[in-house]
Amino acid sequence: MDRYDVKRDLKQLYAPKNTDWALVDVPPQRFIAADGEGDPNTSDAYARAVEALYSVAYTAKFAAKRTLGRDFVVAPLEGLWWADDPRVFITRDKDAWRWRMLICLPDWVPDGLVEDAKEAAQDKKGLPAIADVLRVDLHEGTSAQLLHIGPYDDEGPSLARLHDEYLAAHGLRMSGIHHEVYLGDPRRTDPARLKTVLRQPVAPLGEAEVDEHGQDD
């Protein structure tokens, strides 16, 4: 049985090579998601949200294999991050961060299967946060993206360069929420070797905004 793997099918988004900002076109994608706010390193809500997402994702994977005859590799954890003042991501004032954690699903996984997976995961795990898992769509379109190698807290200079130099130099503005894709497990990987995709949806200066967050819930 062939297994769908988003890292293989969308290499430009999940295995980029460029370590400086470059533009990519991001197609529509389907996710399960969990929302919260605060420092992800100390927030119990963050840990519960991530645990709930993985529980639902793996339950959906096995349900798809059993009922649809199709399999997929559970995708990497991703996150949308925003705040009233976006510069808190440069200064790393994590208590002011808001987040929506995500796991991508193949487009052939129906919403009904996801709901059934939530119920099954809840019955098995008994995690209250599973009830708050959402099914969302995201279409970021044109985005600036790079591969960051190193600790998460070293992202600041790259983000500052995006905000202070790259956007103006290319006649662009931010048009959606800062997006990160986590390609390594921080529990098992040397922080200096962690790989994170940093992505920012953008639009030409002067183009009318269609949606504040660049997403369709």
Provide the descriptors you would attach to this structure in a database record.
6 helices; single chain; 30% strand; disordered C terminus; two-stranded parallel ribbon; ten-stranded antiparallel beta sheet; 217 residues; alpha+beta
Q: What's the quaternary structure here?
A: single chain
What count of helical segments does DSSP give? 6
Low-confidence stretches: 210-217
How many extended strands? Answer: 12
The dominant shape is: globular
Which class best fits the helix and strand makeup? Answer: alpha+beta
Helix content: 25-40%
What do the pLDDT scores average to? 93
Give the C-alpha Rg.
17 Å
Rounded to the nearest angstrom, the distance between the terminal CA atoms is 32 Å
Biggest β-sheet description: 10 strands, antiparallel
Provide the β-strand percentage band: 25-35%
One letter per element, helices H and strands E, the order comes to: EHHEEHEEHEHEEHEEEE
Short description:
This protein is of the alpha+beta class.
Could you explain the architecture of this structure?
- With 217 residues, the chain is α+β, with helices and mostly antiparallel strands.
- The strands form 2 sheets. Strands 2, 3, 5, 6, 7, 8, 9, 10, 11 and 12 form a 10-stranded antiparallel beta sheet that branches. Strands 1-4 form a two-stranded parallel sheet.
- The protein is 30% helix and 30% strand.
- The longest helix is centred in the first third of the chain and has 24 residues, at 44-67.
